[in-house]
Amino acid sequence: MADEGLKLFGWEIKKASRKDEKLLPSIVPPVDEDGAGYVTSAGAHYGTYVDINGDNDLKDDISLIRQYRGVSQHPEVDDAIENIVNEAISSSTNEQSVALILDKVEAPDSIKKQIIEEFDNVFSMLNFNELGHDIFKRWYIDGRMYHHLVVDEKNLKAGIQEIRPIDALKIRKVKQIEKAKDPLTGVAIIKKVEEFFIYQDKPGNQQSGVKLSVDSVSYVTSGLLDENRRKVVSHLNKALKPINQLRMMEDSLVIYRLARAPERRIFYIDVGNLPKGKAEEYMKNIMSRYRNKLVYDANTGAIKDDRKHMSMLEDFWLPRREGGRGTQIETLPGGANLGDIEDIIYFQKRLFRSLNVPVARLEQETQFSLGRSTEISRDEVKFQKFIDRVRTRFSHIFYNILKKQLLIKQIITEEDWDEWKSDIVVDYVKDNHFAELQEAEMLRDRLASLDQMAQYIGQYFSKEWVMKNVLQFDDDDIKQMKKEIEAEKAAGEYDDMMGMGQDGPGGPGPQDQQPPDNAGAPGAITGNPSEPVEAAIPKKAKSNNGVKK
What is the pLDDT of residue 334? Predict the structure, then answer.
């Protein structure tokens, strides 16, 4: 055991605001979704967290991770994981598979440029273009991922020099709380909370461990907790029971087929009035005389005559006394309904559903159709939404490392990060054909609806309402579209298009169309025909692909 006052290994980001941080009085420790266990500081040894929090918790975490890794080796599970990883991380393009988007970040361009440069550095240190598939797969299977951020403590401003992955079995996050009694009520109040990591080269060894500072380790979880909200679990957690059931059913099927598949014969041998000993000897002589067991040796390619004792899958030899029907041979039929595997298929589909992958993707005989989006199954839509959620959670790997890189290089402050983090977007390259089909057809349907109601804009519908409810723009999109259109008008990009209608140059333009019967009614569309409303709105739709962000 080491002393509680042992200095943390690793570097720390010195925050000016840390002195002003105050922990509000409470009897309940703050709850995070990281699954870190709370320990008290009463034991005088940091290593006593194992004893206080229960050694079983640590062993359970290690056992769970090992179960996840074992389950991932099953062919059906591995196929499902590969489907998820291939959809989440695109490796079929030569461009960077992950990019940083700062369009909504209200910061100077110089700062944005530095942030993007540091993101590229982090991306390069992770070697994500080559190892992105493996990194995502390890995170998905274990349900957590740790990285040790190596820096030169004598020159912190140089930033992170290397990013090294840490085996999830060897490290654990711990939150140590210090309590004090309230003089008025006598209730234990949380006075202080300290966070750190404990690294153990030999997992589960209570006698050894190194404290690592929070800043020197990047820790990202799956975001899933167990029913008690104490332990981080993997996306494979709900597949543990179905996979065990499927394994038992498959083993039972194999045993049944081995035992019942072959046809066997029953030899009734007439032994007359021979005494028991003589009858057994007579039976053995008959068996050795007529029993011919040929065995193929796969190693040598030779065929051997193996005259050994009878096994459970071979013929039966039974004696029959005088007065019976004499020597007789009967045939026992093999097992029936050996081709009936509906129970196996049931448990397979149950396993597939637990893995969040459409069953059609895991059935090899199912062909892939590249049709319209209306042909896309509901399962594919659900699968794409699941991939988006998993991507969002995985992005915290980049957020955590990028934040620490920017802070130690003093490019931004922590207050800046807190202000901008919701607007910083990690964009993944998409190669899902279903998503492309869906977006394209959504755009066509919205433009078709817009074309049908264009004559009613200004009479029954406002431009703002149409852009929000038909084109599905949000407030930021509307502002951006108006800004871009004004800039393009000022640049004269629309001058050559004013005389064009829907049929091209020389065709009937909006100004040539007959007005509706109620054109003179109050609220009817009026104004300069050189700037038709119905022509302007489709321009806005096209500039944003018609899809709400």
Answer: 67
